[in-house]
Every structure is written in C-alpha cells, then in structure tokens.
Write a structure and sequence with these properties.
By secondary structure, the protein is an alpha+beta fold. The protein has 2 domains: about 475 residues, Kinesin motor domain (Kinesin, 3-Layer(aba) Sandwich), CATH 3.40.850; about 280 residues, no CATH class. The chain contains 21 helices and 22 strands. A hairpin with a 7-residue loop joins strand 18 and strand 19. The structure holds adenosine-5'-triphosphate. The site of adenosine-5'-triphosphate (ATP) has 17 residues, from helix 6 and strand 17. One of its GO terms (biological process) is microtubule-based movement.
C-alpha cells in the first residue's frame, strides 16, 4: 500500500498511534534513552584549521597518550588533552613515513574480525568513517602512484597514512562494505536510532556505486558477490529482520509502518525525485519534528520490492552529466529518507506497550572534478559552481562541529548556509548515528582531491553526534498521563481560586456563569412569592418605594454580576391601564417582537395620561424598565394557590403606603376584554420566552433548565385565565402588599375616586406579574 502524503509533518504521525507521533511525544518526555557518544570518538588533537580539508597539524607525527597502557591509543580526557598528549614515532604499519593518525578510538575498539584479538564486539560509535578505494578500471595503470590500503583501518596516499574505522580496497566487495556499515545500521535502526550514511568523494570515485550499485543490480538478489549496493542490501536485511521478528513475536502485537522519500539538491534547489514535477521545494524547521521538506512526496511501503521500485524511480530521475572522471557523473546531491515506525504491545494487554520511530537517511553527494580542463558548457559550469559551493559549506559545517567539542564553545553552527547543510542537521552533529564513506580513486596523480576527501573524513570523526533511541514506553505514557492529570487538577484549582485566566474569555465566561448561578439562587429566594391569604382582611397597600426597591434589588442582583444584563430605559413599554410589557431587549424578545407587543398593547388599551405615565415611570427604576413586561391581570382565587414568600430584603425594608394613580385602575367593564387581550399577550410572551428558551438550550450557550420558571409563568397564566372567567361578576379589586402579598377582594372602585389610595386589583395582579416576569427574564438571562 502506498499513500502519498503532501505534508511530511503531519505524516510523521503514526497511523496505529492515531495522532500521537513518537517524535512529538518524545519532546514531552522527561527523559530519553540516550546513548552518549563514546569518548573514544573524540580525538585528542585539535582540528588543524577551519579551512576546508586543510592538512592536520603535523601529518608526520602520531599521537599517543601518557596514560596509554597498551600499544593502542586509549580514550582521551578532553580537559587533559594538552598535557597528556605526547608525540612518538609512527607505528610500524605506517610503512613509508609516519603519518597523521586519526583519533585513538579507532584503535581502541577491538574488532575480532580485524584480528585485533578483542573478545567483546566493539561498541558501535555514533560517528563512523570508512574509506573505500575504487578498483582500477580497465585501461587504468597508475604504476606506483596508487592509494594503498595498508591495514584494515589505514591507508596510505603517497607518504601519508590515514586511519579510519574501516578501509576497503579493490579486493573488498559490496558485501564487505555492507557487513561493516549496513548491518550495524539495520540493527541501530530497528533499535530506534536515527541513522545516516553519507558518501563523499571526488567525481568518479565510487560513491554512487557503493551506495546503490549499478542499476542492473538493484533488482538482483543480494548475493555476496553481487554488485548490489549497500542501500538495497540494507532494505533487504531490514525487511527480513522484521519478518523474523514478527514470526517470533508470539503473544505480542507488533506493528510496523514504513514510508520513504527521495529528493535531490540541484543548483541549490530541492526537487522531488518521486515526483519530478515538484521543484524548488522549501525546507522547514519544525520545533518538534525537526527539519523537513515541505510538500515532499512520502510513499508508504510494505516490502523490499516497494522500496526497490522507489529507489529505481528516484535514481533514474537524478541529474547526471559527464565529467572528466565519470561519463555519468551525478550532478546533484540526493537524499533518500526511510522512516520506520513500530509499535509493540502484549496481545493480552490493554496497555500502550511501546513505540519506536527511526529514520534512515542515505546521502549521495555530487562529486567535484577540479581537474577538468574544459567544461562542456555553461550549464555544466553552473552545476559545478553549485556543487563546489555546497561542498565547501559542508566542509565548513564539519570543521565547525569538529572544533566545538574540544573548544567547548557553542559556536553558531552554519546549518543554514546551504540546502545540503540544512538538510543534514540531524545527520551531522544531531540525533543520528552517522557513517561517512570516503570514496577515493586509486590514482594518486591528483592527490589533492584524495587528500581533501580523507581529511574531510578525519574531521568528521571529531564531530559529536548524540543519537537517542526514539522510543515511547508504557512508563512514559503513564508518566505523561499523570502529568496531564496533575496539570488539569492544578488548572481547576487555579480557576476556582480565580488566580488564573482573569483575562481569559473562557474563565470570564465561567465566572459569569457562576455569578449567574448565584444570582439565580438569590432571585429564587427573593421572588418566591409569599403565601396569598385570600381570607385575610388586611388591606395591602403597595408602597411606591417598595416597588422601586424591588426593582432596584432586581437590578442590583442582575447588574452586580452581569453588567451586560442591565437594561436600557429606552425600551420601556408601559402600556395603558396597568398593562406593561417589560421584556429583555436582547435576550428575551427580538426588537421586532417587542415592537409588535407594544403595538398590540397600544392599539387595544387606553393609554395612561402623561402624568400618570410619568409617575409610574418614576416608580420603576429606569435601568430596569426594559427588562419587565407588565400585563394587565385581574385578581383570581388562584392567587391564593402559589406559595408565596417575601423577599428577605423587602421584609426588612420600611414599608410605606403608596397611592397609585387611579388611571391604572380600569373599569371593571374593561377588565375582561383587556385582561383577555393581555392574557393573550402574556401567553404570546410566554410562548416567545419558551421559544427563546429552547433556542438558548439548543445553542448550548446558556446551559441550564428554566422549566421551573416556565411552570411558574404557566401557573400565572392559568391564574389570569381563571380570573378572566371570574373577574367580571366579582367586580372586585385587590390591594397588594409586599409584606403579605395578600390579595383581598375590594369593592369596585368608583371612577370618580380614581385616585384611590389602594392599588386596584388589576394593578396588584399586574405588579405580581411584574415580579413574575422580572424573575422570568432574569432567570432566563442567568441560565
Ligand atoms: N568498487 C567498485 N567496483 C567496481 N566498479 C566501481 C567501483 N566503484 C566505482 N566503480 C565504477 O566507477 C565508475 C564511477 O563510479 P561512481 O559513478 O559510483 O562514481 P561517483 O563517485 O558516484 O561519481 P560522481 O560523483 O561523478 O557521480 C562507475 O562506472 C562505477 O561502476
């Protein structure tokens, strides 16, 4: 199965891990399994120069350490380098002249296969450098002017000797290189390390041959004598090992996922070798996933055959040209990246298990041909210029990194000096096990090129890579889960204490909701209407101050906690004949609905005189006017049904009698019609409120039920309905007291005495309705 991904960053997420990327999670982990580079990889000798491929300090001396207790050099202590270093005559394997030996670790590692007599296999260094001398081609005869392998780890160029981790010559086949380079790489990759192989050398020196082999050999079986390069051998071994592992994973669930990309850097532009139409791609730096190329094709693969196809496709798309050293010279640097993601868990377990991610990078550089006498064209010159420039930047990078461990200075590393150095950020000096193959021609007539290559390899050995196993274990996941839980708890505590997020909208909203809940409790307590004693003879007067105080209290309750919910005076609707619809402008009714209500009220009801309007207007706190709907109601026997209680605040308030204008009292003859009308208005309002309520509920912005409030209103409506049916015959009026809220039948009020001291029945009910609606509105806001 192949899946093309256009976003490398996103595809770093493992499918079987869902959205959890190993590399991402690793950034969260308190620890990583880290393999510090062995001290043995550090040379005791400072790099000779910052210049690219300049010779060592003294190529004719060999270093040895004062504390060396063996014939081989031992690991240096960097801080004691200067005093511990001594010079001595070159060892016997330097046949002609003493030469510059590379760092001691090469010799300190015991390798039975090299006949060093070691017992334990050598540790695999973080940075490994091998040299390979290409065989002489047909017709080539250089006589004595050849580069010679003088030991498994040393070679000579003229009178100079260089030591590396391994040296291969014409007698070494691809399999030999694979055993030394490829096999450890596969093991490291399966262990969870990032790994890189970089082939470096002059044009025609055998870089491409070593890595990929001839195209014809790509599909061959990797027989030991085959010409197949080490990369296809690596993939064959990788899939073979994984198959073996899966076959032996009884009781375990073992999943793998692979994906591959292939790019080239040509004339300092990145092109996609798997989709040659994609040119000039950009390098991106992701803090968690590292460097990646935007929009680069990544193909998922499941088998060695899949990879082979990708390799053939990519290599055939690479730019090639002719040089004096190679008729099919690579004119671009290419980078093949292969990502392995694995996840292992016990089959019976529901736990996470463990997950690993590793990245294999194969970098085949374009070679320089400085000996070219004639360029075949301007294009060729341009290519050479870019190749030379990028290789020069690479040399500078290597010099900088090689110097850093010894000087202790954290110099700015010039990774971004070129596309190549930028892309190699992980491989060189980063989280990767690096192997550099220094490819050299056997002809030493141009020993300048050979020396450059070998000195490059020398310097690479100074670089300190810090590869880590990219693994997430069960413990890591548990640790992260604990951390998340703790953080959540801390957050909740901080939120509840109000110490966090005061400026955060979410927390503000939460505080508002809390305040609203408090408000709701407060209003419920204060507006549960007192029991109406229908039998009481006590005349209840409505005190204007009481009304004002009630309104103020309601306003305070609302405005203290929710300023937004304060209402504007402009929207006061004060219908005639004690019918007033006060509705929340913003939340309860739309302005159109309000206007409709008002219009109906004004059309059907007699308007109060200007004076009385003003009186009533004054009696209501201006700030709350728009928030309450006042409907004409009549006293009903049902009013005794609700269990009413007095507001604690009102109870303590000084109560005064108030005289309401009799204009609020309407003729009983008008009551039925008007009350019916207003009942309808009320019902309409209620319906609207229910509509609004359901809208709010469905919007989920204001969670919380208002059923009790709706029930109260419904009950009020029933009372009004009932009163409609009975008010005309009774012709009664009531007084309204905030202390007892006792509604008492009263004789019909003479129109002439319209300035009666007691509030008429309709007005009393009307006031009750005010309270009810105010509660409704504020509660609706609060929920
Ligand atoms: N170890 C080897 N055994 C046999 N032939 C080799 C070996 N190394 C290189 N060659 C041959 O030498 C020639 C040049 O090799 P190759 O193309 O790999 O060089 P290169 O370093 O990649 O050159 P360039 O940088 O110009 O691309 C090829 O024909 C290749 O087959």
């Amino acid at each position: 199965m192949r899946t093309k991904s256009s976003n490398p960053a996103s595809t770093s997420e493992s499918r079987f891990l869902g959205n959890i990327s190993t590399s991402s999670l690793r950034n969260l982990l308190p620890r990583s399994i880290s393999t510090k580079p062995s001290k043995s990889i550090f040379s005791s000798r400072n790099p000779s120069s910052n210049a690219e491929n300049t010779p060592p300090l003294d190529p004719n001396v060999q270093t040895k350490y004062a504390d060396d207790d063996s014939s081989s050099a031992t690991k240096p202590v960097l801080s004691d380098l200067s005093k511990s270093r001594i010079t001595e005559v070159a060892p016997s394997d330097c046949q002609k002249q003493p030469s510059a030996t590379l760092d001691p670790p090469v010799k300190s590692e015991t390798d039975p296969s090299d006949g060093d007599g070691g017992v334990l296999p050598p540790p695999d260094p973080s940075v490994k450098v091998v040299a390979r001398i290409r065989p002489t081609k047909d017709g080539e005869n250089w006589g004595d002017r050849t580069v010679k392998k003088v030991s498994p780890r040393t070679l000579s160029v003229g009178d100079r000797t260089f030591s590396f981790d391994s040296v291969f010559d014409s007698k070494s086949g691809q399999e030999d290189v694979f055993q030394k380079v490829g096999v450890p790489l596969v093991k490291n990759a399966l262990a969870g390390y990032n790994t890189s192989i970089l082939s470096y050398g002059q044009s025609g020196s055998g870089k491409t041959y070593t890595l990929w082999g001839p195209p014809s050999a790509m599909v061959e079986d990797s027989r030991p004598d085959s010409c197949q390069g080490i990369v296809p051998r690596i993939f064959e071994m990788l899939f073979r090992e994984i198959q073996k592992e899966q076959e032996n994973s009884e009781g375990k669930q073992l999943n793998y996922q692979f994906r591959c990309s292939f790019l080239e850097i040509y004339n300092e532009q990145i092109g996609d070798l798997l989709d040659p139409t994609l040119r000039n791609l950009e390098i991106k730096d992701d803090p968690k996933n590292g460097v990646y190329v935007e929009n680069l094709t990544e193909e998922y693969v499941t088998s060695y055959e899949d990879v082979t196809q990708i390799l053939i496709k990519g290599l055939s798309s690479r730019k090639v040209g002719a040089t004096s050293m190679n008729s099919k010279s690579s004119r671009s640097h290419i980078v093949c990246t292969f990502i392995i993601e694995s996840w292992c868990k016990e089959t019976s377990s529901k736990c996470f298990g463990s997950s690993k991610t590793s990245r294999m990078s194969f970098i085949d550089l374009a070679g320089l041909d400085r000996n070219k006498v004639d360029d075949s064209g301007r294009q060729c010159a341009r290519e050479d210029k870019y190749v030379k420039k990028s290789l020069s930047r690479l040399g500078l990078l290597v010099n900088t990194l090689a110097k850093a461990p010894q000087t202790g200075k954290s110099e700015d590393v010039p990774y971004k000096a070129s596309c190549l150095t930028h892309l190699l950020q992980e491989s060189i000096g980063g989280n990767s096990k690096l192997t550099v193959i220094c490819a050299v021609s056997p002809d030493n007539k141009n020993d300048g090129e050979i020396l450059r290559t070998l000195r490059f390899g020398e310097r690479v050995k100074y670089i300190r890579n810090e590869p880590v196993i990219n693994e997430i274990t069960e413990d890591d996941v548990n640790g992260l889960t604990d951390q998340i839980r703790q953080l959540k708890e801390e957050l909740i505590r901080a939120k509840s204490s109000g110490s966090v997020g005061s400026n955060n909208g979410y927390f503000q909203g939460r505080n508002v909701r809390e305040s609203l809940n408090q408000l709701r409790v407060s209003l419920n307590r204060s507006l549960i209407l007192p029991h109406i004693d229908n039998d009481s003879d006590e005349e209840v007067n409505v005190d204007e101050d009481d009304v004002r105080e009630l309104h103020q209290q309601l306003l305070q309750n609302s405005s203290e906690d929710v300023r937004d919910y304060s209402v504007s005076r402009d929207s006061v609707q004060f219908g005639g004949s004690c019918d007033t619809d006060l509705a929340s402008e913003d939340d309860f009714h739309s302005s159109e609905e309000k206007e409709l209500d008002l219009k109906e009220s004004q059309d059907e009801l007699p308007l109060p005189s200007k004076d009385n309007f003003e009186l009533a207007d004054k009696a209501i706190n201006p700030a709350i006017k728009s928030g309450v709907s006042i409907s004409l109601c009549c006293q009903s026997p049902f009013l005794q049904d609700p269990t009413l209680s007095e507001s604690p605040k009102l109870r303590n308030a000084q109560r005064k009698s108030v005289t309401f204008s009799s204009i609020c009292s309407v003729s009983q003859n008008n009551i039925p019609d008007n009350s019916k009308l207003k009942s309808d208005v009320l019902r309409q309002s209620l319906n609207q409120s229910e509509h609004t309520q359901s809208s709010l509920r469905s919007s989920k912005i204001f969670p919380g039920p208002t059923e009790s409030l709706a029930a109260s209103l419904q009950r009020g409506l029933q009372i009004i309905d009932h009163h409609q049916q009975n008010s005309a015959p009774s012709k009664s009026s009531v007084s309204f007291s905030f202390e007892h809220l006792t509604l008492k039948p009263r004789p019909e009020v003479d129109k002439a005495n319209s300035s009666a001291q007691t509030i008429p029945e309709n007005t009393a009910i009307h006031r009750w309705t005010i309270c009810l609606f105010t509660l409704c509105i504020l509660q609706k806001k609060s929920v």
